[in-house]
């Protein structure tokens, strides 16, 4: 059974930090590249950070230098450390495989106030 459970979102002021976590079922985590996606109100879902099974990372231009993705393979968990948050980072954040499965978790809401 596929499971993706995101947590760690919340309300933060601009310039603040949050750390998101996502626990995935082992069947989709262990050998796959994982990513953090976000969907802002009225916009399409976008991939903002990705990490290979070996730890190589890539970032969208909009978050590079501010966000850091990491993974703990023993815990089937992927993290997103978000620093220097901006109001435009406000979105629901999801984790999924890269490319994504049809199944999505509920996501976690990040709201950045100005």
Describe this structure in words.
With 114 residues, the protein is mainly β. 4% of the residues lie in helices and 48% in strands. The protein has a six-stranded mixed beta sheet, with no helix packed on it. A four-stranded antiparallel beta sheet has the order 1-3-8-7. A hairpin with a 6-residue loop joins strand 4 and strand 5.
Order of helices and strands: EEEHEEEEEEE
Largest sheet: spatial strand order: 2-10-9-4-5-6
Record field, number of beta strands: 10
Structural class of the helices, strands and pairings?
mainly beta
The termini sit apart by: 40 Å
* Radius of gyration from the alpha-carbon trace, in angstroms: 13 Å
Task: Please state the overall shape, judged from the principal axes of the Cα atoms.
Answer: globular
Low-confidence stretches: none
Task: Please estimate the helix content.
Answer: under 10%
Total helical segments: 1
Mean pLDDT: 95
> How much strand content do the residues show?
over 45%
Give the biggest beta sheet: 6 strands, mixed
Key phrases:
single chain, 114 residues, 6-stranded mixed β-sheet, 4-stranded antiparallel β-sheet, 4% helix, globular
Outline the fold blueprint:
Elements: E1 4-7, E2 10-13, E3 18-24, H1 26-29, E4 34-39, E5 46-51, E6 57-59, E7 67-72, E8 77-82, E9 91-97, E10 108-113
At a glance:
The protein is mainly β and 114 residues long. The chain has 1 helix and 10 strands.
């Amino acid at each position: 059974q596929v499971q993706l459970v995101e947590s760690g979102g919340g309300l933060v002021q601009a310039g603040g930090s949050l750390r998101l976590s996502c626990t995935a079922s082992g069947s989709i985590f262990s050998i796959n590249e994982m990513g953090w996606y976000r969907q802002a109100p009225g916009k399409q879902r976008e991939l903002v950070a990705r990490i290979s099974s070996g730890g190589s990372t890539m970032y969208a231009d909009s978050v590079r230098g501010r966000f850091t993705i990491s993974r703990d393979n023993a815990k089937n968990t992927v993290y997103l450390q978000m620093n220097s948050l901006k109001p435009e980072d406000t979105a629901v954040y999801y984790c999924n495989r890269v490319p994504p499965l049809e199944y999505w978790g509920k996501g976690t809401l990040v709201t950045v106030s100005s």
